[in-house]
Amino acid sequence: MNNIKLILTTHDDLIQARELARYLVEQRAAACVNIIPQLESVFHWENEVQTENEILLLIKTTETKVEQVKAILEERHSYDVPEIIAFNGEVLHQPYMDWVRECLGEL
């Protein structure tokens, strides 16, 4: 099985995004979190179109850890409605998938 879950979330504060990423990795909920700063988001909120600078977090995990990631994001995220979107991915490099599973305590 070479499937991975990629979970996206955004944040408005780089320091808090880093803390959240570190916590996810420390808890072995994620093998890796990429932090992409200076993302511009346009969205509806409170009956208005908003434009905000945000930080994108790309959370790499497995199916067995998705609920743990979701629970952490719901508990620790500062947004009232945090973005939590999961994608299925196929890892094409087995050593990388082995590393992900090792990081998550799945090997």
What can you tell me about this protein's structure?
- The chain is α+β, with helices and mostly antiparallel strands and about 110 residues long.
- It has a single domain (about 5-105), classed as Alpha-Beta Plaits (2-Layer Sandwich).
- The chain is built from three helices and four strands; from the N terminus they run βαββαβα.
- Strands 2-3-1-4 form a four-stranded antiparallel beta sheet.
- The longest helix is centred in the N-terminal third of the chain and has 13 residues, at about 15-25.
- The two termini are about 15 Å apart.
Query: Structural class per helix/strand content?
Result: alpha+beta
Order of helices and strands: EHEEHEH
* Strand residues, percent: 35-45%
Please compute the radius of gyration using only Cα atoms: 14 Å
General shape: elongated
Please name the CATH topology. Answer: Alpha-Beta Plaits
User: Architecture, according to CATH?
Assistant: 2-Layer Sandwich
Count of individual helical segments: 3
CATH class assignment: Alpha Beta
How many separate domains? Answer: 1
Q: Give the tally of β-strands.
A: 4
Low-confidence stretches: none
| Ends apart, CA distance between termini | 13 Å
Strand order of the largest sheet: 2-3-1-4
Helix content: 25-40%
Question: Quick recap of the structure?
Answer:
With 107 residues, this protein is an alpha+beta fold.
Any descriptors?
single chain; 107 residues; alpha+beta; Alpha-Beta Plaits; four-stranded antiparallel beta sheet
SSE layout:
Layout: E1 3-11, H1 14-26, E2 32-45, E3 48-61, H2 66-76, E4 85-90, H3 94-103
Antiparallel strand pairs: 1-3, 1-4, 2-3
